[in-house]
Amino acid sequence: MNLLYQIASRPAYLASAFIGCIGIIFLAIWLMLPPPPKTLTIATGFPEGLYNQFAKHLQAELAKEKITLQIRNTSGSMDNLVLMSDPKSGVDLAIVQSGVGNSTQYPQLSSLGGLFYEPLWVWYRQAAFTSEGGALTQLSQLKGKRVSIGNQGSGTKMLSEGILKLNDIGPESFILKTLNPDEAIQKLQQGELDVAFIVVAGEAPILRKFYQIPGIRLMDFDQAEAYTRILPYLAKVDVPRGLISIAHDLPKRDIRVIASTATLVARDNINPATVSLLLGSSYDILRNYSRLQKPGQFPSNQGLDFPMDLDAEIFLRDGPSFLYRHLPFWGAVWMERIIKILIPLLIVLLPIFTYLPTILNISLKIKLARLYKTLKTIENRFGREDSAKLFEELDALEERVERYNISAFQTKELYDVRAHIAMVRDQLKQA
């Protein structure tokens, strides 16, 4: 109570306490709003894949803002999800194929946006389907064939298994191979494999290796629309004749494929400024990234397995905020932090400013109460103590009053106390 009394009765103490509270509030909010990290790690896939290619483009864009993006190669989407589910993995971001995981399995993950289509390419040796006229038109024809559905840990394997299940084709129906793309190419060339499933973007360099194998063709998904109705994470994509290779005339006619979406995934505690930077950079990279998509189609909020990050959703709908449109990235970051701090501070300070006159008035009244108490003590000592000593105390009391810092609204109180001191002095003279 003595401390509170001292603080309330002395403006300097009151000001110091006020400034201290403001400082504590500012520091607390500042710590609650950390700046975006300057180093990020992204899990991709095979070094020659399009995941890795996109990550390298993103790495170059982030470097312009002094942010380091470290790339970690993996076996594919399943490995990426395992890394993202482990807080100790050191991985902050991952590119994941739609259809290989969901929010029930990985509740701590969120989508920042779809990046590009990843069609399911089904390559087959015509010689293996001579009884069907040399053409693979439905997956039911795979029974008894040697089929690679992708390597362990890959999105290709997950999607392939889901597609085959829809066709009532289990592992016992064909000779199952779990090969990576390079191994599948080798086996096709050697005639040790009949069909290879691979999920990659249309521009992936690995596709060139497939169409250079003699006697290899691409399956046309006549039932593409049905697949997309049953599996909402898939999209139907039309591939015009020659789109993969004009020189090799691949495909040799217009075909339909079913496609998943490569998605940029983060943990749900990702810094909002990082989201803005990642998506802004992705727009620049993806503007004309793939021949299978319309210009400006990606990044997108379609075909995602995980809930959209709120900041990502706002960015995709409205674009970058005013600050990020008109200021350099780090300038926008610090300005945004300051604004986010000032708003709560104003909420706290406005009521204080409203009651500040009352607080100051209370402070003055406390001072005057102490002074009047001293004045009453002097008055009670009339006739019992030396008058000269009492006059000195009255002079000291008056000097104390002169040192009070008061506002214009408190002048009356000052004159009142002076009048009372003068009255006591007159009474002392007459005593």
For the structure shown, list the relevant keywords:
431 residues; alpha/beta; D-Maltodextrin-Binding Protein, domain 2; 10-stranded mixed β-sheet; 14 helices; rod-shaped
How would you portray this structure in words?
There is one protein chain. This protein has 431 residues and is an alpha/beta fold. The chain has two domains: 2-27 and 337-430, no CATH class; 96-320, 3-Layer(aba) Sandwich (D-Maltodextrin-Binding Protein, domain 2), CATH 3.40.190.10. Helix content is 47%, strand content 15%. Strands 1, 2, 3, 4, 5, 6, 7, 8, 9 and 10 form a ten-stranded mixed sheet that branches. Helix 12 (329-380) runs parallel beside helix 14 (411-430) and helix 13 (387-402) packs antiparallel against helix 14.
Describe what is shown at a glance:
This protein is an alpha/beta fold and 431 residues long. It has 14 helices and ten strands.
